[in-house]
Specification:
The chain is built from 16 helices and 4 strands. By secondary structure, it is mainly α. α4 runs antiparallel to α5 and α5 packs parallel to α15.
């Protein structure tokens, strides 16, 4: 914090860069760029707004993958907004973010045979650290909800468990949440003390023991492993904490896998990055190498989805997706 205050009082860009977490992995050296040569000959058809977001993301990489991921989300936002507007026609009302995302998911699903091979490597290779973030916000949302404190639940949780998703996409996400409620969230309650304190939801015990911390770490890691399995393989088994220790199987279709990736991972990350506190970002005393790696991997996933969106929108030839597929090798595992 002292470093941030010093920079605020007397800003120096070089000192700011030195204060950021660094890694030897500079993906920009080997990143295959999104580009269609036709944009040079037919400039009026070039997706200039998306291109501007791409350039902004390159400018802040590799030092600030958290900011780069926000620029990539803006590119995705532009694409799903255009796709939504085509679906609703000229007389419809411009859809909100979540409705636009659902239009995008439905369009991808209708063309899934074209795009499956480009997404599958990301399903297989995204590291568990990303799913720890997903699992934690789901559990925190459940615990807040159980304490009649849903307004304090993470925005990402309220989105995934909200009316728009329930009414327009699938009930499988709610099946997943209820499965986690009856297993991992139930287990976590043994080592936490969920409550509202000073108009803020907190869950850690006031006198948290070393054993509590270790148990919570293991719960988080185990749930992350299961969520990765669900996305990579399309199904997962969890054991409920009921009297019979019932085993529950949750399965995802291809549409649900993509939908969970877009809403449960990327939109959730965007909400946390944009609306969360500074501790969630690189420009923080709490940032570490894992923060850097997580946002870099999220950026790469968004990069591929942006390319797919350009193809879906008729703004890039599909043949240029082939080389972009190799960018998955840059994931920091």
């Amino acid at each position: 914090m002292n470093n941030l205050l010093q920079l605020a009082e007397n800003y120096d860009k070089n000192q700011h860069l030195k204060s950021l977490i660094r890694s030897e992995d500079n993906i920009m050296k080997n990143l295959t760029l999104i580009f269609d040569p036709a944009w040079k000959t037919n400039r009026e058809d070039a997706p200039m707004e998306v291109i501007s977001f791409l350039l902004d993301s390159y400018y802040v990489m590799p030092e600030r993958p958290d900011l780069a991921s926000l620029f990539m989300w803006q590119a995705i936002n532009r694409l799903y907004s255009e796709i939504s507007e085509k679906n609703i026609g000229n007389n419809g009302k411009r859809p909100g973010d979540l409705a636009g995302i659902i239009h995008f998911i439905n369009d991808i699903d209708r063309n899934w045979n074209r795009f499956y091979s480009y997404m599958q490597p990301y399903y297989d290779m995204l590291p568990e650290k990303i799913y720890r973030f997903v699992g934690n916000y789901i559990i925190n949302g459940i615990l807040a909800e159980d304490e009649n404190a849903k307004r304090f639940a993470p925005l990402a949780y309220n989105t995934l468990n909200g009316k728009t998703v329930k009414d327009n996409l699938t009930t499988k996400f709610q099946d997943l949440i209820e499965g986690i409620r009856g297993s991992y969230a139930c287990a976590e309650k043994q080592y936490t003390d969920p409550r509202v304190e000073n108009d803020k939801f907190v869950k850690n015990k006031q006198t948290e023991t070393k054993q509590d911390k270790e148990k919570l770490r293991l719960i988080s890691m185990n749930l992350a492993h299961k969520l990765k399995e669900l996305v990579a393989k399309g199904s997962m088994n969890i054991q409920l904490k009921d009297t019979a220790n019932t085993n529950k199987t949750i399965t995802f279709t291809e549409k649900e896998r993509f939908g969970f990736m877009l809403i449960g991972v990327l939109y959730a990350s965007r909400c946390n990055n944009l609306h969360g506190n500074v501790e969630a970002r690189m420009n923080s005393e709490y940032a570490d190498k894992e923060t850097f790696m997580t946002y870099t991997d999220i950026y790469l996933l968004e990069y591929m989805i942006t390319a797919i969106g350009l193809v879906m929108n008729g703004q890039m030839d599909e043949k240029y997706l082939v080389d972009l597929k190799n960018n998955c090798q840059l994931l920091i595992r």
